[in-house]
Design brief:
Structural class: mainly alpha
Low-confidence stretches: none
Mean pLDDT: 77
Number of strands: 0
Radius of gyration: 17 Å
Oligomer: single chain
Strand content: under 5%
Largest sheet: none
Helix content: 55-70%
Length: about 120
């Protein structure tokens, strides 16, 4: 089990990394589906115990911005969005939150996963 100072130190390192990368607490919060105040509490190192939120914040901060090369989204992704998006800003926001939360969780398809023909269309 982690010592209290270990994860508070980790949180403070994440805060420094976020500042270095120009990530605001609001940006981090939106990306992981949390509130700005929750992110602030975590990054301050004032937590009394390790939490999933701390893990999500650290994962996002330490993995975001590694690649400065931007590319167009794969056709499969844009097709999937077109298939499910109803065209409203509210639904776009909801879909963005789902995608960001998957990224924060490090969601990957299970080993051996192969998209069905329906998913590929």
């Amino acid at each position: 089990m982690s010592d209290l100072s270990d994860f508070n130190t980790e949180a403070k390192l994440a805060a420094a990394q976020a500042r270095q990368r120009g990530l605001t607490q609001e940006h981090i919060a939106q990306a992981i589906g949390a509130s700005q105040s929750q992110v602030s509490r975590v990054l301050s190192g004032r937590s009394k115990r390790r939490s999933k939120l701390l893990d999500s914040v650290c994962k996002y901060v330490f993995s975001s911005g590694r690649s400065s090369k931007k590319s167009a989204p794969p056709a499969e992704l844009t097709q999937a969005l077109r298939a499910v998006w109803d065209g409203t800003p509210e639904h776009a926001h909801a879909l963005a939150l789902v995608i960001r939360s998957l990224g924060a969780l490090g969601a990957n398809p299970p080993d051996g996963y192969v998209a069905s023909n329906r998913e590929r269309k």
